[in-house]
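Encode chain A's predicted structure.
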Amino acid sequence: MHTEAGPIVMAHVEENQDPVKVAVEVSPLEVTNAEARAAASRRDVVRDVHGVVLGRAHRGRIPGVVAALSVVAAGAGVARWLDLGARLATRRRRRTNGLLLGLSALAGAALVRWQLQRLFTDEPPYDVELRHLDFEIRRYPVLEVARTAVSGTWAEALDEGFDRLASFIFGANVERDPATLAAGLHHRPKKLPMTTPVIASREGSHHVVSFVMPKGETPRSLPVPRDPRVTVEPLASRRVAVLRFHGTYSVDTLREKQEELFELVERAGLVPASDPVFAGYDPPWTLPFLRRVEVWLPIKG
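Encoded structure for chain A:
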């Protein structure tokens, strides 16, 4: 059998971007073998060599690929964390803004109620016979009122009278015995809601301040005041000319508005029945330009 040196098979691959050449000497083949068998053997050898070399190349590339994938994964994690943080911050801002808006709305509503308390307070019913701008002719039914006479200046009398009547409706009273209309034996107080307006007028040497009693209260249901200076009695039905304005209710302002009301009544051909009456619809802490103030002039008819 004749033999000769086997052929040299060259394989070319790249490892870490550096070309690698591998030479493999193929074991001798019998000369008598057919050409097909020789070609098949060479293909098998080349495939094996490629497998070995590519395996080396892959093993050399794996750490770099792993490192690259680690960087990508870490970057993706950081990006996701930053995105999540941004979303959470946005949600917190929205919640904070919503909370602030809610608190602002509540504060605004409380301020409106504090300054415009009259809008949430009952006032006695009346019929309007004539209305022209701020001038009206009204007719009031019989009203139950709590009243007290106070000496001193107009401002002092208004403050003192308000305090006495406020104490009465807030509990400085005794429930009345419906049978005798006198103070009950159990001395239980009865709290009454605030109403509008506060009425004040001049009677002799005193100012008389009055609170209108709540709707539905009668002489039998109203309590007896503990303060003897406070009395509960009916106010006769009346027809009044009314002039409404906003602002302060100083003596000078009221005198000016009373004169204006007298002129309006005279022009309307009406006859006054008594002296003018002050009617205030707001607490003292209401800003002057928000106050509803009226001057009433009882008229005949």
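The chain has two domains: 8-96, 119-298.
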